[in-house]
Amino acid sequence: MSDLIQSYIETLTPKVAGTLRGTAKLVITGEGAVMLDETGARACDAADEADVALIASDAVFRAILSGDQNPVMAVMGGKLKVEGSAQRALKVSGILVG
């Protein structure tokens, strides 16, 4: 597992543990993927199934996590791609920013 993926796991586990229903996958373009669920975050394969997948570069995800990028605007601007439920994507993005 790369240091980058490990840093996402360490950052996201406290944010999602006990708050996220279902599964969400963050696919960091060219780097790997992180699965989020009620237990926290873990490394996964980009092909693993999830209720929703958010796909973007590391820079976009870092900007979302820091609050510098609004996730909805990232989708509208083509920086963030959503596969699956848009409603679930909004809930996940709220957790990531919060």
UniProtKB/TrEMBL annotation:
<dbReference type="InterPro" id="IPR036527">
    <property type="entry name" value="SCP2_sterol-bd_dom_sf"/>
</dbReference>
<dbReference type="InterPro" id="IPR003033">
    <property type="entry name" value="SCP2_sterol-bd_dom"/>
</dbReference>
<dbReference type="Pfam" id="PF02036">
    <property type="entry name" value="SCP2"/>
</dbReference>
<protein>
    <submittedName>
        <fullName>SCP-2 sterol transfer family protein</fullName>
    </submittedName>
</protein>
<feature type="domain" description="SCP2">
    <location>
        <begin position="19"/>
        <end position="96"/>
    </location>
</feature>
